[in-house]
Amino acid sequence: MNFGFLTRGCMLALWLAAAILGQGTRQVLILDDGTEIAVREYEVGDDRVRYFSTARGQWEEVPTTIVDLERTDERNRSAQAELDRNQEELRRERAAERRARTELHSVPLDDGVYYLGAGGLVSLEQVFLKLDRSAGRTALNVIAPVPVITGKRTLSIEGLDAGTVATNERPIFYLRLDSFARFGISRLKPEPKKNRRVVQQIYTVPRTEEQAEAQEDVEVFRQQLAPLVYKVWPVEPLEPGEYAVVDYTPGKSDLRVWDFSYRRGGTSEK
Q1: Which of 1, 51, 91, 184 could join 39 in a cystine, given CB atoms 3.0 to 4.6 angstroms apart?
Q2: Distance CA 236, CA 239 (A)
Q3: Strand partners, 188
């Protein structure tokens, strides 16, 4: 078997492969006095047990009467079952490696976010964000003796619909980013009267000027396929609505957004 292709968990897989190969040549004969003889294989005759000694590399024989055949068979069956389990684990590891490698090769080399649609990967457009400052002040609920009055800013996307429509309730996205990022999926809040979708509310605490961001994040799975290449998808099925893949650092104004809509049974990507 060739295990050289393994990339993720390579050392563990190689160790497992070596263990499996070693187990494949190791059986034992157990004598009545408890002595164990390491053998490659053995044959039981009428009055003799013929075996190939792994210690001396040759065929030898012992009387059947001094071999505990029941314990020998039980031990070797147990060892074979463990070997089979390890081989199955290695096969799963190899299959996972092949899938990850295939996924990685399918992601375009250009930085961006890609939705896995019915026809393949579709590039999501990074959208322009509009920043609006509230004319009034807002009470931010925090752990304090009295409410803290803050300024509020709103990050939004113009328009009520995204250009890309996902029809899978648990859509899969691939990200190739130019730097390490904290990313996820957020649900957007449409505001028809203002013809916009709200991505994030930013509250600024007076005096300290500390910022607190509020957005509706979706719980997601994240998988790294390679440095700066990731796969992300929702843990739970999405409800129909407006969403975005977001890349941001809490407390910093560096939000990047790629929007999409989820419509159950709707028309797919652009």
Answers
A1: 51
A2: 9
A3: none
